[in-house]
Design a protein that fits this description.
368 residues; alpha/beta; Rossmann fold; 8-stranded mixed beta sheet; 39% helix
């Protein structure tokens, strides 16, 4: 039977039967990115009303316009020359479209602008190309780019990197996935790299504590920093500092799954049909950035970031076409609650810089 006609869960089971238990990291990698069948490599929609979750950019063009405003300020700080935006995992392409729509109002910037999207998924590329007609190029990895001056951007990227799950017993154990009628978890002694991660952040887990370790984030940041000649890395995602991430109140970890706009904590269900995410350790990004020649400009909540860049003025501009006063008020209230209160408190915006002798002042994180 051709592999593409088999359910992804069956493919994973066959691998485990052949090779033995796989780490949760490898299970998550297959569930999300297996060619043609993984969640992010399927041809159907994941984002928006017909998908499994919303992103800020799928709700309103305001989000992209305000990021564009921050990018415009970055262009000024880098000297008003050639400016490259590198976006990792551009989803449906709406954020790129809205950023370019804002920046087009500055012809001097727009003439010197290039927008590079790092996207491995062929189906995602096709969706993005429906919105994007100019200034954009697509690449499989950041290594395909020459060093750039500009900004490396990601929105809800790192939370979808495959993670290692660990449990503290007498010693640190790693979660592996085996097959016994269905998928079952087994524990094996953790590799030294996982122990070193906890030691690096001075984290001591109590017995029974279960959590995640995202080592792919370090590899991603190392590659991004190497590509950046001068400029900024702007990371938007939900997460905590290391102290809060590994707080006793999160003794079961932060892993969540999203299926048809419902949240669950069952990664072994709906395999290939649901998103699997984990919160981001922003302390790790700051530390690893420093190790790669980056310094932090600031960390803000999404609400602080948007408000500092003029959210309410942009909201008024975006709603001027609505003639019904009641509908206008309802639309404004809905977007304000979602982008500032709901997503605004959960999501963080981290900006790191490289190539400036002193830390630049950026409006989006200056008031954090």
């Amino acid at each position: 039977m051709p592999e593409q006609t088999i359910e992804l869960s069956e493919i994973i089971k066959r691998r485990i039967t052949s090779e033995g238990p796989v780490s949760f990291h490898d299970f998550m990698e297959m569930a999300l990115y297996y060619p043609g069948l993984g969640y992010y490599n399927r041809p159907d929609d994941q984002i928006g009303q017909t998908g499994d979750f919303y992103t800020s950019s799928s709700l309103s063009s305001i989000f992209g316009a305000l990021i564009g405003k921050q990018l415009e300020e970055m262009w000024h700080l880098t000297g008003k020359g050639e400016f490259t935006i590198v976006e990792y995992g551009a989803g449906t392409g709406l954020l790129c479209r809205d950023i370019l729509g804002y920046l087009k109002n500055n012809p001097a910037l727009y003439d010197q602008l290039h927008y590079a999207i790092i996207e491995k998924s062929a189906s995602m590329r096709e969706r993005q190309k429906k919105h994007l007609m100019e200034k954009v190029s697509w690449h499989n990895s950041v290594q395909e780019l020459d060093p750039v001056t500009g900004c490396i951007l990601s929105n809800e990227l790192i939370d979808n990197f495959a993670v290692h799950q660990v449990v503290m017993e007498e010693n640190l154990m790693e979660v592996f996935v085996d097959v016994q009628d269905g998928f079952v978890e087994v524990l094996r002694p953790a590799d030294q790299k996982l122990k070193d991660y906890l030691a690096e952040f001075n984290i001591s887990l109590p017995k029974g504590f279960r959590t995640e370790i995202n080592l792919e984030a370090r590899d991603w940041l190392t590659g991004a920093a190497a590509t950046l000649r001068k400029g900024f890395i702007l990371t938007i995602d939900y997460g905590y500092s290391a102290e809060n991430y590994y707080h006793k109140n999160r003794s079961k970890g932060t892993l969540l799954c999203y299926h048809q706009h419902r949240v669950n904590d069952q990664p072994y269900q709906h395999i290939g049909q649901q998103d699997i995410t984990c919160h981001v350790n922003f302390s790790a990004l700051c530390r690893w950035g420093h190790q790669n020649g980056l310094s932090c400009c600031g960390l803000a909540s999404q609400a602080q970031f948007l408000l500092s860049l003029g959210f309410h003025n942009q909201l008024k501009k975006s709603c001027t076409a609505e003639e019904d006063v009641l509908q206008l008020a309802m639309a404004q209230a809905r977007l304000t609650h979602t982008l500032l209160v709901d997503m605004g408190t959960k999501f963080k915006v981290l900006i790191q810089q490289k190539g400036f002798p002193e830390r630049p002042v950026l409006s989006g994180v200056n008031l954090a």
